[in-house]
């Protein structure tokens, strides 16, 4: 089959499911990965005949897209802070909002003296500590997650991006302390987390690609106590964050005030809620 024919079929079969621009992005990404073509090269390569395995990949991808599987899981990769990350169904697909969180942490800490030990709680694909390690070269990065599978992938992502991050597996809701998780390190200058914060009641507004494929445990919290993870992390920070150390959260946009109150009541100072590019309450920073 020729690339031009495939393109026609691809757009036709996805027409009822996705806006044209989105289908184009999918097609471009697959062409880039499978054929090494840049988006602007695709239209002049219409006569190119696809190899069997390339065609099979496109057909499988098309079938998966029809089932609303995220393109990042189909390709097994995503981009975050201008770096490439492997992703799979054990990890959330990194979001642009989280890039803003990373940006803020880099800005605040670029002249921080050593030691600058940073712990990321609920690391998933490892995109937060890995991008911090790349840009805060004087920092030591630590990251924990409840999922063995996520940690395995995060370790691979750290290697792929050539940075050192130390990983540990722990369920922070069950363990009240991190003792002995990392040899010789018990206190950190910075703690960061993008914990699950989407309430059940918000599911109605979410898209199928998220609902059907992304890990539940990374996204959702109960309607009764949506701040559960923030409660637990501020408690942990009482032992594991140095005095004057900084705490950073990604937060639920609808719960900015409540999250702020919780952090203030846990004894933190300089508690600030910061909006993302879309104007939503999205980040919180505080000092212990
Ligand atoms: N921002 C993500 C979303 O909208 C949620 C991330 C999280 O729960 N930590 O799907």
Automatic annotation (TrEMBL):
It catalyses: L-glutaminyl-[peptide chain release factor] + S-adenosyl-L-methionine = N(5)-methyl-L-glutaminyl-[peptide chain release factor] + S-adenosyl-L-homocysteine + H(+). Its EC number is 2.1.1.297. It is an enzyme of class 2 (transferase). Residues 116-203 form the Methyltransferase small domain. Signal peptide: none annotated. It holds the Pfam family MTS. This is Release factor glutamine methyltransferase. Substrate binds at residues 194-197. The keyword Mitochondrion does not apply. Belongs to the protein N5-glutamine methyltransferase family. PrmC subfamily. Methylates the class 1 translation termination release factors RF1/PrfA and RF2/PrfB on the glutamine residue of the universally conserved GGQ motif. Keywords: Methyltransferase, S-adenosyl-L-methionine, Transferase. S-adenosyl-L-methionine binds at residues 122-126, 145, 194. NCBIfam families: hemK_fam, RF_mod_PrmC. Residues 22-76 form the Release factor glutamine methyltransferase N-terminal domain. It comes from Galbibacter marinus. One of its GO terms (biological process) is methylation. HAMAP family: RF_methyltr_PrmC (MF_02126). GO terms for molecular function: nucleic acid binding; peptide chain release factor N(5)-glutamine methyltransferase activity.
């Amino acid at each position: 089959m020729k690339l031009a024919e495939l393109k026609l079929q691809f757009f036709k079969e996805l027409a009822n499911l996705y806006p044209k621009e989105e289908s184009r992005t999918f097609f471009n990404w697959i062409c880039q990965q499978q054929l090494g073509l840049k988006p602007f090269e695709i239209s002049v390569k219409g006569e190119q005949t696809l190899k069997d395995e390339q065609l099979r990949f496109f057909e499988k991808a098309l079938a998966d897209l029809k089932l609303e599987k995220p393109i990042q899981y189909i390709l097994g990769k995503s981009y975050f802070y201008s770096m490439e990350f492997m992703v799979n169904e054990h990890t959330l697909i990194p979001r642009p909002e989280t890039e803003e969180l990373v940006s803020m942490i880099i800005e605040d800490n670029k002249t921080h003296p050593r030691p600058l030990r940073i712990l990321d709680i609920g690391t998933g694909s490892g995109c937060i500590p890995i991008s911090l390690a790349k840009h805060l070269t004087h920092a030591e990065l630590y990251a924990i997650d409840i999922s063995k599978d996520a940690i395995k992938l995060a370790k691979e992502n750290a290697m792929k991006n050539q940075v050192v991050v130390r990983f540990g597996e722990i369920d922070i809701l069950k363990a009240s302390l991190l003792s002995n998780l990392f040899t010789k390190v018990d206190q950190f200058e910075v703690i960061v987390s993008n914990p699950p914060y989407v309430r059940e009641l918000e599911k109605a507004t979410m898209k199928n690609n998220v609902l059907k494929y992304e890990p539940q445990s990374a996204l959702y919290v109960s309607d009764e106590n949506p701040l559960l993870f923030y409660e637990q992390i501020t408690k942990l920070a009482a032992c594991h964050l140095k005095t004057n150390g900084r705490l950073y959260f990604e937060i639920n946009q609808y719960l900015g005030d409540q999250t702020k109150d919780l952090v203030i009541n846990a004894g933190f100072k300089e508690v600030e809620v910061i909006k993302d590019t879309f104007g939503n309450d999205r980040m919180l920073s505080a000092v212990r």
